[in-house]
Amino acid sequence: MPGIKDVAERAGLSIATVSRALSGKGNVSARSRERAQNAAAELGFVLSYHASSLASGRNHNVGVVVPSVHRWFFSSVVEGVSATLLDAGYDLTLYNVSEGQDRRHSVLNDFLLRKRVDAVIAVSLELSEAEIQQLLAIHRPIVGIGGPLPGASTIRINDSAIAESAARHLIQLGHSKIAHMTGDAAYDQDFRLPGTRQAGFKKAMKDAGLEVRPEWQVSADFTIQGAYASARRLLGSSVERPTAVFAASDEMAIGTILAARDFGLRVPSDLSVIGIDGHELGEVFGLTTIDQDARGQGALAVRRLLARLDGDGDPEDADTEYPTRFVIRTSTAVPPEDSAPLL
Predict the structure, then answer these.
(1) Can you give the pTM of this predicted structure?
(2) Shortest CA distance to 118 belongs to which of 87, 88, 142, 148?
(3) Please, what is the average pLDDT of the chain?
(4) What separation in angstroms does the CA of 97 have from each of 64, 67, 101, 111?
(5) Are 287 and 253 in contact (CB under 8 A)?
């Protein structure tokens, strides 16, 4: 049975270089990595992660905790995390805490403390001081995505500012009758995303001297289906229709576009629609959006964790505001000339 020494001799490299090349850890030139991989393939050698773990004290496994695996943002973050971990030779253990506080407590206070993971990525979870200290006490680096975590590294976007930008885009086009679709109360937990984005919308409206009409403030569950039902009520029951809708997510914006079609409304001639996310379907629907690059956030979280594990972490990266990109497509335009009350 060939060993790593045999691979090193075949490749003409040191054992340490071969170990780094095959494990994906450490700095190895592309040429050396290719020589090590070719030699290992020729000999039928597979690096033993069990032996590697015993030697390094690592499990080569990162725990990812998400509120749900059924929402686009969370699944996209996990895709970015998974791809980057695989490239680095790490496994991923996914913990879904969607089933309430008991499940969350079990994950944060039991599973993660078994020391089977080298680090933890918490996605859109506002960990308590006690939960953070528990994880830090067992020397497991933590990176949070979605909001500030005291004592831990965090990657987030400025939800209030981007919501304000989305609303301001509609205002600058000339819209004054703007509706907002926010998230249900059930989603206003942890970092209170719906409320934060709604606050940004209201600030933009107030700064422009525009009225925020209560009947044009509707909620949905961040899905296309839920937004479709809410948008039908919005567009079909008001004495006066809005000329634009700012949805707190792309999926809810798409649901709004589908509902508008049911009423014979053309987007954007009769109704402008804007969202936030960077969802793949946005291009199909010509949706103007603010792309938050969910996969990129996941990839950055992994790179930051691996740097911390290697002792190369930068203390300045404790709280990073991730850049977003404004994508203007065809779903937004100047308001219709005739936007008088419906008869």
Answers:
(1) 0.81
(2) 142
(3) 87
(4) 11, 5, 8, 12
(5) yes
Q: Report whether pLDDT(342) > 60.
A: no
Pairing state between β 288-291 and 244-247 = unpaired
Which among 99, 72, 123 has a CA at the least distance from the CA of 252? 72
* Predicted pLDDT of residue 55: 45
Q: Kindly list the distances between the CA atom of residue 199 and the CA atoms of 55, 217, 330, in Å, as whole numbers in the listed order.
A: 51, 12, 26
Find out whether 298 and 78 touch, Cβ atoms under 8 Å: yes
Phi, psi of 52 (to 5 degrees): -60, -40
Q: What is the mean pLDDT of residues 138-161?
A: 87
Q: What is the pLDDT of residue 54?
A: 42
Question: Is 39 or 20 the better-scoring residue by pLDDT?
Answer: 39
> Residue 99 above 80 pLDDT?
no
Q: Of 288, 303, 275, 251, which Cα lies nearest the Cα of 81?
A: 303
Q: At what angle do helices 250-262 and 224-237 cross, to 10 degrees?
A: 50
**Is residue 265 scored above 60 in pLDDT?**
yes
